[in-house]
Structures are given as structure tokens and as C-alpha cells.
Amino acid sequence: MGRKRLFVVVGVVLVALVLYAAMRPEPVRVEASKVVRGPLEVTIDEKGETRVRDRFTIAAPASGNLARIEIREGDRVAKGDVLARLVPPPLDARQKGEVKAMVAAADAAARSAEARAAAAGSAWDLARRELERVTKLAAEGIASAEDLDRARSAEDSARRELDGARHSARAAAYELEAARSGLLSLESGGANRAIELVAPADGEVLSIPDRSARVVRAGETLMAVGNSRDIEIVIEVLSADAVRIRPGNTIRIEDWGGDKPLAGSVKVVEPGGFRKISALGIEEQRVRVVGDIRDAPAELGDGYRIEAKIVVWSAESVLKIPVSALARKDGGWSVFRVEGGRVKSVPVKIGQRGRTDAELLEGLADGAVVVVHPGNELLDGARVAAE
């Protein structure tokens, strides 16, 4: 009887095991990835375009009859070359007053540009002397390498600001010269004297809205001139992103048409923002970021579209985890860790976040396996089959 009872018990256990194995749910198939140590960078990715750094807009200094413009877009011009001729009609006292007001406005703009250039020169001189001081301290082991890098970045940014201010001052000086020549022509000859509009600098003709002979108004744009080989990039970013960008930040220029990305750096983050409606109809507040291109290829011209990645943070070696593995839980971040064929929800602390990876500060060690793209059906303690 005892042996028979033992056989019955063993049979019941075997049947139970078979039923359990048959009814046991299949493990959830998940995609997994390891926590690893390596380089990480945080970028702000936006579209942008190139533009000539020193663009001169040739405008009519007075109303009058414009002769047909013979030059064409792309033609090379030298400083002083005659670009167009304008014959103004006789003006009454009110119209002469308007022309004089244009000269006064151009004079004020030129003085303001000169003041900005002088201020930029003083800032660069201060940054240059600070770099010399920090360089000496670094050689003596007093200043750190980080202090030296900051001083170099500040000096480089100040120098670029000075270059931009000088370009603006030259453009404003040309505008004043053109306005004064128009006033002089009106006062000395009136309708019998043509005003010659000359090239303010060596370069190419970038655009001509209309080459036809016609009557133009004072201030109407006739053409634009500039050096198409001396270009910069303009990137429109969200204002929330602009506060994280600093002059000197690295820029990678992609999708410009060439085989490999170009290198650049942020020159200035413009202080004023503007509203723009996105392609989805959302009103956004954006800010322009102006950058330089190192070794710009000859193929790039004015107004070309580019894709820019502005590096706002980077590190050579950090513990990082895929962003797709993170999930919100109790006001913080958590991940599903895979161990022994099951998953366990683990809270983690995250630092900087890149496009695909995030800096892992606390919660897991190097080599830990986590689930990426966890589905809603995945629960704490579930059996999984990692791929």
C-alpha cells in the first residue's frame, strides 16, 4: 500500500509539473542594451543657412531715373567700380530736407557702429591681456588647464566680436558716403548731374532685384555686393536652447552637399529673439546664433541651406545609458534591469542627456543590462528573453 501511494503521489506531481509547464506564460521578448562607459556629447540640432559676412546693400540715395544696370549677378567688382547711375529730378525744399535727414541718419548709424567697434576693441584687448596672464599662471602650475581653456575661448570670442563690429562699421561708413554723395550731387547739379553708385569693396554682385531702367525712390535697394568666399552661418534656435549656447561652442555642419561634415564654432548669440510660426503652426520664440566655418569650401555660397549640430556639453568618459531605456516613475527616472531572466524596476539618477544616450550618475554599474523601449505590458518581476 505504501509503495502504491508513493506512485500516486509521484504521478500527481508529474502531472502538476506538466500542467504548469504547459500553462506557464512565455517570456516577454525584449530588446536589451548594456550600461557602458564612453564619450558623450549634448547637441542642439537645427537647420541654418550661410550668408556673406560683409554684405553691402547698394540703395538709391535719392529718387530719380535709374539707368539700366549692365552688370550681372556673380560678376567680380573692385572697390570704386561704378555699379549704377542715377539722375535725380529737381527737388523742392521738402524733398531736399528728406535727403538731408537720410544723411543725418546714416551719419548717426556710422557713429554708432564706430562706437561698437571701439567697445569691441577694448573688450578684445582686455581678453587678450587676461589670456596672457592665465597662460603665465598655467606655466607656473597655478592656473588649471580649464582656466586656460576658458581664457582662450573668451579671447577668441572677443576677437570675433571685434571682426564683426569692424565689418559693420565699414558697411555703415559706406552707407554714409553714398548718402553724402547723393546730397552733394543734388546741391551742385540737380537734375543735370548723375549720381554714380560705386562698389564699396572688392567682391561679387550677389543679387540685383531688377536690372531695368526705371524710376526709383530714395532708399530703394538696387543690388547687394559682398565677398562670397567670406561666409558665416546663421542658425535659428529656440530661446530655451539659446540660453545654453556660448560663444566658442563647437558646431558640426552637416547635409551641406559635401562628402563629410564641416567644423565651425559659435561667434555670437544674438541678444534679441523673434516669433516664428513653425511648419506645424506652432508659435515659437527663436534666437539667431551666428557661427564661423573653418576652411569653408569654395562650393558654399550665400544663402545655402545646412544642418547644424551645436555642441553645448561633452565628456570623454562617462557612464551612459540609452535614453530609450528611461521611464518616468514617482517623479524621477527608472529602468528595467535584466537579471536572471527577469526584470526589476530600478530607480536611476540622470545627468546630461544627448540624442541617444544619457549620463548615468546613480543606480546601476558598468555592464548592467537594461531593457530599451519597454512596453506597457512589461511588469516588475516578469520573465523576459533578451535580444
Question: How would you summarize what this structure contains?
Answer:
With 387 residues, this protein is of the alpha+beta class. It is built from four helices and 21 strands. The strands form four sheets. The chain has a six-stranded antiparallel barrel.
Characteristic key phrases:
3 domains, 387 residues, Elongation Factor Tu (Ef-tu), domain 3, four-stranded antiparallel beta sheet, alpha+beta, conserved putative lor/sdh protein from methanococcus maripaludis s2 fold, OB fold (Dihydrolipoamide Acetyltransferase, E2P)
Structure write-up:
The chain has 387 residues and is α+β, with helices and mostly antiparallel strands. The chain has three domains: 24-39 and 316-386, conserved putative lor/sdh protein from methanococcus maripaludis s2 fold; 42-51 and 229-314, Elongation Factor Tu (Ef-tu), domain 3, CATH 2.40.30; 54-226, OB fold (Dihydrolipoamide Acetyltransferase, E2P) (Beta Barrel). Helices cover 30% and strands 39% of the residues. It has four helices and 21 strands. The chain has helices at 2-23, 93-139, 145-188, 239-242, and strands at residues 28-34, 36-52, 56-59, 64-66, 76-77, 82-87, 195-198, 203-207, 214-216, 221-226, 231-238, 250-254, 262-277, 283-293, 305-322, 327-329, 332-339, 342-353, 357-362, 369-372, 384-386. 28% of the residues are buried. The model has no long low-confidence stretch (mean pLDDT 84).
